[in-house]
Design brief:
The complex is a heterotrimer of chains A (325), B (351) and C (281). Chain A has 325 residues and is an alpha/beta fold. Helices cover 39% and strands 29% of the residues of chain A. In chain A, the strands form three sheets. Chain A has a six-stranded mixed beta sheet with strand order 5-6-7-3-8-9, sandwiched between helices. The radius of gyration of chain A is 24 Å and the shape is globular. The model of chain A has no long low-confidence stretch (mean pLDDT 87). With 351 residues, chain B is an all-alpha fold. Chain B folds into two domains: 143 residues, Tetratricopeptide repeat domain (Serine Threonine Protein Phosphatase 5, Tetratricopeptide repeat), CATH 1.25.40.10; 108 residues, Serine Threonine Protein Phosphatase 5, Tetratricopeptide repeat (Alpha Horseshoe). Chain C is mostly helical. Chain C is 79% helix and 0% strand. The chains are: A alpha/beta (325), B mainly alpha (351), C mainly alpha (281). At the B-C interface, helix 1, helix 2 and helix 3 of B face helix 4, helix 8, helix 9, helix 10 and helix 11 of C.
């Protein structure tokens, strides 16, 4: 998948989404203005899964709405496929699943998709087949004849995905796709997103569930109080340069203790140890030591932080900066 | 951007359509004016003349829009309810609201005026108050006529009130004649009994010449109706000869003819009595005139003309009014008092 | 991918409003079905139909007044209930979509904002048509019954009554359109209150016209003249005097009123187009 990304970057393909100094300020008549988004600069390339993360109120939904032409920028620009997001042409090529979508409850799943298909003006000859395919894809087979108001949260998300994909869009925008789902539902959604990427679609998703995002996103942007505080590929963000994570077992207690002093111990139990080591000399020394002591190297990889850790660090920095300022 | 010129176009079209809308509205307004669509509408033309306290009601009427008549109908039903409960005084303010909401509701004007002039006046505590109510009834009808100048019904009702309640026969006849030129709700001629009423009114004044004329008109208007034949015959038998003398100023001959033709037949006929009294008046024999009017009044409790003439003649000659006869000329229980007055003032018994 | 290109290719032909009729019709159908699920519409309909026969009970007025009462009450009731339905539906349509967030999924689809409003409008128009038709039928039956009770021909004035009902529908549509236009930017309650205010002002339009043509005060003349131009003239839809007189109403007049309504609706649509395009969600 990274190959596609690299490929598109090499080809210098046009980014699907570009924002430049995108700013949104809400002004109510008798109230102080609220800056929901401040100078956002983003690029999303074709074929990647891009995640916009941050806590509630950080500006994710605002960004999404700006990209959908539901609200308009106070300053700066947003472009989708190079066009103004308000354009109807753009909307033909995108699919959107809103956060906690409420649909016309009295319709059945099939009727709902049929309704949206008509709005999308999907050729009548293909409508039925398309709907069946999507229902199968989102795992709603056999339940699509039920009324939407009887659906569980998981079912609603699935049908929401289905309607977003009706027109086989090049770009799919998802707002909190895994929020409120049980583990199976979450996994299913993630699978579908990955499948989309396989098909070459671009996925732009917003989420505050950082652990869910970690598994599927190619690139991430972190928002905090309307500002972009971190962005980059997952690799760039999560991998800690110059540190490695090592797990070894079958070591004696003394060996464990000695090893422990070479780096930062995360966990030690029985004859096993899990620790972090500096790249280079420390690492080499430790590896040699393990082998010498007859231990077994179970795991060796560059240290990866979780997205959550990255996020917290980024926020602290940002807040710290503000305090200093 | 594309959106910008769309906006300009939209604004341009907006102005264009607003203008054409105005033009269309103007045309429709004209059609409505000329095509008589508007009858059920607001009483706009009279707005300026309305007293201030009524304006709020008219405003409410305007706000109600098409429901104005429904509200008016409901209020009118309430009035009817009050009437059947015997609470006449209660219904009048409500009825006034009804006609303000629906000025073309002829029934409301007519019946309310009747309540005022008749039902309320007989329940009045004093004769003066009674007279007041009659006046109110008359004014009410006149107001109704202003709002509905083309309908005969209210003219007739006004004429009738003068004829029946006040016995002002000349006035009644004049108003009845106005009614003849009006129309009913379907735009048709007024009913034929109005012609008869005119004739009757003239009979009682009496104006025999006019009475004959109008009976003859009536004969043409409703040839199959039996009344005019009998009426003309009676008049010719009893009064025409006397009238001809009367008109020529031959008063003694008139009296003689009158007594001869009339009295043997029907001595208490109102027309004859009135005619007799008029001849005395013309002869300047006020005493006898008053006597005759008195006699007429005694024989007919509802002859208000007679009572009125008694008062007018008493005033003219400076005589005190008979006790029991009120200023208003309305009937009271007075027989013994009159007798006494006759004794005192004219030195003889009441006839 | 084939589908996507196909859809795009087909849709590229339709940059004008014309080609999106399928989408608009989908919204219309959806709106129509949706309105019947709103309990209040059913309640109003049933109530309206129940009130109509009540006018038969009042029978102690004179003959001419009785039939006038039936016509006034009948048309008045249908107008009242029609207005209540129309105003409620139009005022709540867009605010409810926003509240329930169904509007986001639709507006993210390739349908123009105004097409959305148009679809909603047609859905409401259809619902009102059915409702007023139903009440109208009940009314005509009652009218016929009353006429028979009064020994008058039951079909007297029939054509005029149908014309009156048609104009009544147009009148309700006019107010509904105004309510819908305002609802593109206003909240539910503001809209309801505003619509009734417009109704009252519309009833005063004759007075406004009168003042604008008769007053000596120039400023007032100008002001009233402007009001006269923009206020909806509800008296245009009133045929009660003609019904009372038994006069036939020429279809040419009806056509003129249709033209008036159509132009007013276009004006409202243009305003709605401008307002809704600027609206943020």
């Amino acid at each position: 998948m990274d190959a596609i990304l690299e490929h598109s970057k090499e080809q210098k393909m046009e980014p699907v989404i570009v924002t430049e100094s995108l700013t949104k300020v809400y002004k109510a008549p008798l109230e102080p203005s609220v800056t929901a988004l401040q100078d956002l600069n983003l690029e999303v390339y074709p074929g990647e899964v891009f995640a916009l993360v941050g806590p509630n109120g950080s500006g994710k939904t605002t960004t999404l709405k700006l990209l959908l032409g539901l609200i308009f920028p106070t300053r700066g620009t947003a472009r989708v496929f190079g066009e103004n997001p308000r354009s109807v042409e753009v909307k033909r090529r995108i699919g959107f699943m809103p956060d906690g979508p409420y649909f016309y409850g009295h319709l059945t799943g099939n009727e709902l998709l049929d309704f949206y298909a008509d709005i999308l003006q999907i050729p009548r000859s293909q409508k039925k087949q398309r709907i069946e395919e999507l229902i199968e894809l989102v795992g709603m087979k056999g339940r699509s004849h039920l009324q939407v108001r009887t659906y569980s949260k998981g079912m609603i998300q699935r049908i929401g995905l289905a309607q977003a994909l009706l027109n086989d869009p090049e770009l799919v925008l998802l707002d909190e796709p895994t929020a409120g789902l049980d583990p199976i539902g979450t996994r299913d959604v993630k699978d579908i997103i990955l499948k989309m990427r396989q098909q070459g679609k671009t996925v732009f998703l917003c989420s505050h569930l950082l652990s869910d995002v970690e598994r599927i996103a190619d690139r991430v942007a972190v928002l905090h109080q309307g500002r972009l505080i971190r962005s980059g590929t997952m690799e760039e963000l999560l991998v800690v340069k110059g540190r490695f994570e090592v797990q070894a077992s079958r070591l004696s207690a003394e060996a464990l203790e000695a090893l422990g002093r070479m780096g930062e111990v995360l966990e030690v139990a029985d004859s096993r140890i899990h620790l972090l080591l500096e790249e280079g000399e420390a690492l080499q020394k430790a590896l040699a030591f393990i082998e010498a002591k007859g231990g077994h190297l179970d795991y060796l990889a560059p240290q990866r932080r979780t997205l959550e850790e990255v996020f917290i660090e980024a926020v602290r920095e940002a807040v710290g900066e503000e305090v200093i300022e | 951007m594309r959106l910008r010129w769309h906006r300009g176009l939209a604004l341009g079209l907006l102005v264009l359509f607003l203008v054409s809308l105005s033009a269309t509205q103007g045309r429709i307004a004209k059609v409505r004016q000329e095509g008589n669509y508007r009858g059920a509408g607001l009483p706009i033309e009279r707005l300026a003349e309305l007293p201030v306290q009524d304006l709020s009601l008219v405003t409410i009427g305007a706000i109600l829009g098409g429901f104005r008549s429904v509200v008016a109908n409901i209020l009118w039903l309430k009035c009817d309810e009050y009437w059947h409960q015997g609470r006449v005084f209660r219904l009048v303010p409500l009825a006034k609201a009804v006609v303000l909401l629906e000025p073309h509701f002829i029934e409301a004007w007519r019946i309310t005026a009747w309540h005022l002039a008749y039902n309320m006046s007989v329940e009045a505590p004093t004769p003066e108050k009674a007279r007041e109510y009659i006046e109110m009834g008359l004014k009410f009808l006149e107001e109704g006529i202003k709002w509905n100048p083309d309908r005969y019904e209210l003219f007739f009702e006004l004429g009738w009130t003068y004829y029946d309640k006040l016995n002002e026969y000349e006035k009644a006849a004049a108003i009845f004649q106005q009614a003849l030129q009006k129309k009913d709700e379907f735009g048709s001629r007024p009913p034929t009994y109005i012609w008869r009423m005119i004739a009757h009114a003239y009979e009682r004044y009496p104006r025999i010449d006019e009475a004959v004329r109008w009976w003859q008109i009536d004969a043409q208007v409703e040839p199959d109706h039996p009344v005019h034949r009998g009426a003309l015959q009676t008049i010719h038998e009893r009064y025409v000869r006397a009238w001809e003398h009367f008109e020529r100023g031959e008063l003694d001959e008139a009296m003689a003819a009158l007594l001869e033709d009339w009295q043997k037949d029907d001595p208490y006929d109102t027309i004859g009595m009135h005619f007799k009294a008029r001849i005395y008046e013309r002869k300047q024999d006020i005493d006898r005139a008053i006597e005759t009017w008195f006699e007429a009044a005694r024989h007919s409790a509802v002859d208000k003309l007679a009572r009125r003439r008694v008062i007018e003649l008493c005033r003219l000659t400076g005589r005190p009014l008979p006790q029991g006869i009120n200023d208003v000329g309305l009937p009271t229980e007075v027989r013994d008092e009159w007798d006494r007055w006759f004794q005192e003032n004219l030195g003889r018994h009441a006839p | 991918m084939a589908t996507a290109t196909q859809v795009q290719a087909e849709s590229k032909r339709g940059t004008l409003l014309l080609h999106s009729w399928r989408a608009i019709w989908a919204i219309t159908r959806g709106t129509f079905k949706d309105t019947w699920r709103q309990r209040i519409i059913l309640v109003l309909l049933v109530f309206g139909m129940a009130v109509l026969p009540a006018s038969l009970i009042f029978s102690w007025l004179s003959a001419g007044e009785e039939i006038k009462f039936v016509i006034d009450t009948g048309l008045g009731t249908i107008l009242l209930f029609g207005l209540l339905m129309g105003i409620f539906m139009a005022a709540s349509m867009i605010p409810l979509e926003i509240e329930h967030r169904t509007i986001f999924t639709i507006l993210s689809k390739p349908v123009r904002r105004f097409e959305f409003v148009l679809g909603k409008f047609l859905g409401i128009a259809l619902t009102l048509l059915v409702n007023i038709l139903l009440m109208g039928v009940v009314f005509l039956v009652i009218y016929g019954v009353k006429q028979v009770m009064l020994n008058a021909p039951p079909f007297q004035n029939f054509v005029t009554l149908i014309q009156a009902l048609f104009l009544l529908y147009l009148q309700v549509m006019l107010i509904t359109t105004i309510a819908l236009t305002v609802s593109t930017v206003a909240s539910l309650w503001f809209n309801i209150i505003f619509s009734f205010f417009v109704y009252f002002v519309g009833n005063m339009s004759e007075v406004i016209h009168h003042i604008s043509t008769h007053t000596q005060v120039n400023a007032l003349r100008l002001l009233m003249g402007i009001f006269n131009a923009i206020v909806p003239h509800f008296e245009n839809f009133d045929l009660r005097q003609k019904l009372l007189l038994g006069d036939p109403v020429p279809w040419g007049y009806v056509a003129q009123v249709v033209g008036y309504t159509a132009q007013y609706v276009v004006v409202m649509f243009l305003i709605a187009y401008l307002l809704f395009n600027e609206r943020e969600f």
